[in-house]
Every structure is written in C-alpha cells, then in structure tokens.
Write a structure and sequence with these properties.
This protein is mostly helical. It contains 9 helices and no strands.
Amino acid sequence: MDSEDHIGRFENAALLHQYMDNIKCRVFLATLAGSPMRWFNRLPPSSIGSFPNFKSSFLRHFATSKTYWKTSMDLFSIKQKPRESLKDFVHCFNQVAQEVSSAAFEVLVSAFSQGLTEGDFFRSLIKKPPENFDILLSRAVKYIDVEEA
C-alpha cells in the first residue's frame, strides 16, 4: 500500500462527497485494512484532533511504504546484455519507460539508443535517427522479426 496514493484517492472521494473534517476521520477508517487498521487500533483514545493531524500521523507512520517512481535517469541505466535479444531488450526498456511519466520522446530515443549493443539496428538508428519513439519501436519490430526468423 502506497500511503500517499491511498490518502490522495481518499481525499478525492471526500471532496466529491463534500465530507466535513470530522466525518473524513470516520470514513477514512473504512478504507483501512491489515497493518494500517492495527496501527489505528493502537492509537491512544482522543489522540486525533483533526483530519490533517490524522493524515500527517498516517503518512509519517507509513512513510516507508511509499512507492518511488522511476525517472528518466533510470532509462539510461538499461543496457542490452551481450547475448540479449533485441526483443528482450525492448521488453525490458518498455517496462521501465512505462513507469517514467515525464520522459520526452527525445529522452526515450536517446536512452534506448545508448542502451543498445552495436549491431545492425544500432547502426540503422545512427544512419537515420527516428523522428519519435513510436517510429523507433516500429523499426525495432522489423529487426526483431528478422532476428527471430
């Protein structure tokens, strides 16, 4: 459970239903299960004065459960292994690329190209750089088809 994501989804629902602050605390309890519910049950009585206070305590306690999103720097760390197929490299790269929400196509193309081992596909990208990442992937599929044939 990503605590920040959980709070964010709850606050969006609370805004939609226009819950008052004191109601938010009670309704939020219905969203808890497992470890968060056990944490809540161990809180001292009357220790929650407001939802912002409760939210702050909840986020502090579950700070280690936060999901950290990948950045474009993570893309540059992906390298095609010496005997790794182009298909496997594309699959691996795309998995990480999907977790990077802000990568511009230039960054995707650059990181992908720098991760490739030297070969026919790499040389084709040097000779004719792709206009965008989708074009790069469609060209990669053609090389994958040849590789698998």
